[in-house]
Specification:
Layout lengths: L1 E4 L5 H11 L7 H9 L3 E7 L5 E12 L2 E11 L8 H15 L4 E7 L3 H9 L3 E7 L9 E7 L2
Helix pairs in contact: 1-2
This protein binds coenzyme A (COA).
Length: about 150
């Protein structure tokens, strides 16, 4: 598997990936385009040797209470490529990129119904905070806020 930063040429591939992973929550093309060109966002993709994009992670940097934090906006791996360590590697690359940008705190939202993702992040040092965002997703589910301090 190869890992590299995505650019505008990856727009359609990332759009398709998001649709495949999040049938009810996929980002639209315009948002993905903005994320691909915004200097504050980081999009990393995983591609097979034949050039198929099978996973991506999207992070953005933002100011929160006067400190810069990194926010994980999306993480998705095509079902048939799960359980191979791809998400773990993408997360590590994004955290390294945040760290190089002087970011020491990472935040994310995860659906209260998505236990697999919650456990995935917990195994990677993220904690569920007491913040719950009611009705955060289109299916009506709440979001838990998780965070991690980068050391
Ligand atoms: C959650 C998600 C990102 C995890 O992706 P993934 O690539 O399967 O994650 P990893 O392979 O890195 O780790 C998952 C498991 O595979 C195991 N694994 C890693 N490499 C492996 C390998 N070579 N062989 C077998 N298992 C392996 C890991 O140990 C881990 O196992 P555990 O759950 O028992 O600890 C993926 O399921 C997904 O895209 N879900 C849909 C979208 C989503 O929910 N996104 C997160 C919300 S933003």
């Amino acid at each position: 598997m190869n890992y590299c930063k995505a650019n505008l040429l990856d727009l359609l591939a990332i759009e398709q990936l998001e649709k495949d992973c999040f049938p009810t929550e996929a980002f639209n093309r315009r948002l993905i385009k903005n994320l691909l060109i915004n200097p504050k966002s980081i999009v990393i993709k995983a591609i097979t040797p034949s050039g198929k994009t099978v996973a991506d992670i999207i992070g953005i940097t933002k100011k929160e209470n006067r400190i810069q934090v990194g926010r994980i906006f999306s993480l998705c791996v095509l079902k048939e490529y799960c359980k191979k360590g791809i998400a773990t590697h993408l997360l590590k690359l994004l955290e390294e990129e945040f760290y190089l940008n002087s970011i020491r705190k990472v935040v994310l939202e995860v659906s209260a119904l998505n236990v697999i993702a919650q456990q995935f992040y917990q195994r990677h040092g993220y904690f569920i905070t007491s913040s719950i965002l009611p009705n955060f997703y289109n299916d009506g589910s709440d979001a838990f806020v998780m965070n991690k301090n980068l050391l």
